[in-house]
Amino acid sequence: MITPVEIRSKEFTSGIAGYKKSEVDEFIQLIASEYDSLYRQNIALNDKVNMLSQAVKEYKEIESALHDTIATAHNIAAEVETTARLKAEN
User: Fold this and answer.
1) Which of 1, 44, 55, 68 is the most exposed place for a label (fewest CB within 10 A)?
2) Is the pTM of this model over 0.85?
3) Alpha-helix runs per DSSP H in the chain
Protein backbone atom coordinates (compact mmCIF):
# COMPACT_ATOMS: atom_id res chain seq x y z
CA MET A 1 0.00 0.00 0.00
CA ILE A 2 1.32 3.41 -0.87
CA THR A 3 1.89 5.74 2.06
CA PRO A 4 1.18 9.46 2.35
CA VAL A 5 4.93 10.10 2.55
CA GLU A 6 5.45 8.31 -0.78
CA ILE A 7 2.76 10.48 -2.38
CA ARG A 8 4.33 13.67 -1.08
CA SER A 9 7.83 12.70 -2.18
CA LYS A 10 6.88 11.49 -5.68
CA GLU A 11 8.86 13.27 -8.39
CA PHE A 12 7.75 13.42 -12.01
CA THR A 13 9.89 13.97 -15.05
CA SER A 14 8.99 16.91 -17.21
CA GLY A 15 8.16 16.63 -20.87
CA ILE A 16 8.00 19.05 -23.72
CA ALA A 17 4.40 20.06 -23.10
CA GLY A 18 4.29 19.10 -19.42
CA TYR A 19 1.94 20.26 -16.70
CA LYS A 20 2.59 23.28 -14.49
CA LYS A 21 4.78 22.06 -11.66
CA SER A 22 3.03 24.29 -9.12
CA GLU A 23 -0.41 22.86 -9.99
CA VAL A 24 0.87 19.29 -9.85
CA ASP A 25 2.60 19.94 -6.51
CA GLU A 26 -0.54 21.57 -5.10
CA PHE A 27 -2.71 18.67 -6.25
CA ILE A 28 -0.28 16.10 -4.86
CA GLN A 29 -0.38 17.88 -1.50
CA LEU A 30 -4.18 17.80 -1.54
CA ILE A 31 -4.22 14.11 -2.42
CA ALA A 32 -1.58 13.35 0.20
CA SER A 33 -3.58 15.16 2.89
CA GLU A 34 -6.79 13.36 2.02
CA TYR A 35 -4.99 10.05 1.73
CA ASP A 36 -3.24 10.61 5.06
CA SER A 37 -6.60 11.13 6.72
CA LEU A 38 -8.04 7.97 5.14
CA TYR A 39 -4.87 6.02 5.91
CA ARG A 40 -5.08 6.92 9.60
CA GLN A 41 -8.80 6.20 9.67
CA ASN A 42 -8.17 2.80 8.08
CA ILE A 43 -5.55 1.95 10.71
CA ALA A 44 -7.95 2.99 13.49
CA LEU A 45 -10.78 0.94 11.99
CA ASN A 46 -8.53 -2.10 11.60
CA ASP A 47 -7.53 -1.77 15.25
CA LYS A 48 -11.19 -1.55 16.21
CA VAL A 49 -12.05 -4.62 14.10
CA ASN A 50 -9.27 -6.57 15.81
CA MET A 51 -10.47 -5.46 19.24
CA LEU A 52 -14.08 -6.36 18.45
CA SER A 53 -13.04 -9.72 16.98
CA GLN A 54 -11.21 -10.49 20.22
CA ALA A 55 -14.29 -9.47 22.22
CA VAL A 56 -16.50 -11.74 20.09
CA LYS A 57 -14.07 -14.61 20.65
CA GLU A 58 -14.21 -14.03 24.42
CA TYR A 59 -18.02 -13.86 24.39
CA LYS A 60 -18.18 -17.12 22.41
CA GLU A 61 -15.96 -18.76 25.02
CA ILE A 62 -18.27 -17.48 27.76
CA GLU A 63 -21.29 -18.71 25.81
CA SER A 64 -19.71 -22.15 25.48
CA ALA A 65 -18.96 -22.25 29.21
CA LEU A 66 -22.55 -21.27 29.98
CA HIS A 67 -23.88 -24.02 27.69
CA ASP A 68 -21.65 -26.52 29.49
CA THR A 69 -22.87 -25.25 32.86
CA ILE A 70 -26.50 -25.55 31.80
CA ALA A 71 -25.92 -29.08 30.51
CA THR A 72 -24.27 -30.02 33.81
CA ALA A 73 -27.16 -28.48 35.76
CA HIS A 74 -29.66 -30.51 33.69
CA ASN A 75 -27.69 -33.71 34.35
CA ILE A 76 -27.54 -33.00 38.07
CA ALA A 77 -31.26 -32.21 38.12
CA ALA A 78 -31.99 -35.52 36.37
CA GLU A 79 -29.82 -37.40 38.86
CA VAL A 80 -31.54 -35.69 41.81
CA GLU A 81 -34.93 -36.55 40.34
CA THR A 82 -33.92 -40.18 39.81
CA THR A 83 -32.55 -40.43 43.33
CA ALA A 84 -35.71 -38.88 44.77
CA ARG A 85 -37.91 -41.35 42.87
CA LEU A 86 -35.83 -44.30 44.11
CA LYS A 87 -36.07 -43.06 47.68
CA ALA A 88 -39.81 -42.51 47.31
CA GLU A 89 -40.28 -46.04 45.98
CA ASN A 90 -38.34 -47.50 48.90
Assistant:
1) 1
2) no
3) 4-9, 21-89
